[in-house]
Structures are given as structure tokens and as C-alpha cells.
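It is worth pausing here to work through a concrete case rather than discussing structure prediction in the abstract. The textbook approach is simple: state the sequence, then state the predicted structure, then interpret. We follow exactly that order.
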Amino acid sequence: MSAIIRKIVTVVEETQMEMGRQVSPPTRRAAAIAVIENPFAGRYVEDLSPLIAMGEELGELLAKRAVAALGIDGAKVQSYGKAAAVGENGELEHAAAILHPKMGAPVRKVLSKGAALIPSSKKRSGPGTTLDIPLGHKDAAFVRSHFDGMEVQINDAPRANEIMVAVAVTDSGRPLPRVGGLTIGEIKGEDGLR
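Step two, the predicted structure:
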């Protein structure tokens, strides 16, 4: 692993009741978050390829951890998302280098599929920031029941010279979805949209 990891946190959220109604089966989502050293904190660097390589490694590590936290096979994951927060001495491009060029392929490999783009977000912030990880169906972006998000927070991250990187997965969509749109049973999984 080329990233220097200070800590990894895994969070599992299970919703059993929504608006007084039982959610059966419960909806579950998990996020694995790594807090890593930012090798380019405090300076402008043209070549961000070391961060791109870290994104590829972290994609596999964090996807495996999140799937394991749900206790399911990766192929049973329904939606996914990713996010990063750079500390104050970093720049948004550092988060982009980790999240975009190479992180997706290893995440999809862990899940055995993933035709849709992996929703993502990035921000610059300090310790205790809330990281909002957008979620969408892994094979069909138009499945509205899976338009969602997961909030995670680590009380001491990211420090000024760190990057907090997260991958989230779910075994379902939102609790009690009812806004229409493409259903899971209608997914063709060919273009990442439908």
C-alpha cells in the first residue's frame, strides 16, 4: 500500500423503522473510511499520479471492508458511492486524483459488476467534518429508489495534512421508497443508466 494510513473506520447503518412503519427487511448501508497522509499538503504539484495510484489501492481495500461489514457477497451490493475530504493544507484536486481516474475499477471488481458511474463528492475541511457520500444503484443510475446518501464523521479527521477517503455500499435502496421510476426488476444493466 503506497498510502500512509493513520486509521480506518467502518460504519454500518441499519434502518428498521421509518415514520412508524416497519422496514422489512431492514435497509443497510456500510462505509469504510481511511484517513491517509496527504503527500502534497501545503504545496502545488503538477503530477498527481501517486494519489491516483493510492485511489486504486484504496478502492479495493475500502470496498472489501464495506462489503464485509454488511456480511454479504459483493455481487449482492445494490448501490455504491465514494467521497473524500482534504485537510486545510490540501486542495480539491488531491481528492479528485484519489477518487476519479482509477478508484472505480477495483471497487467494481469487488462487487462483480457496476455499470453505473460511482457517485462522488469532495470537499476541504477540518477535523470532525461530516462527509456526505452520495449513493446510486451500481448498475442503473435511473433507479430512483437508490438515490440516497450516507453521512460519516471521524472526530479527529482530516487533519491539515491528511485526506479522508470513503467508499459506501448498500444492500438495498431507501427505506419505504415510493417516488416511482425504474425498478430493480426492470434493470437491463447494459448502459449504466437503465
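Step three, interpretation. The longest strand covers residues 21-37. DSSP finds three helices and seven strands in the chain.
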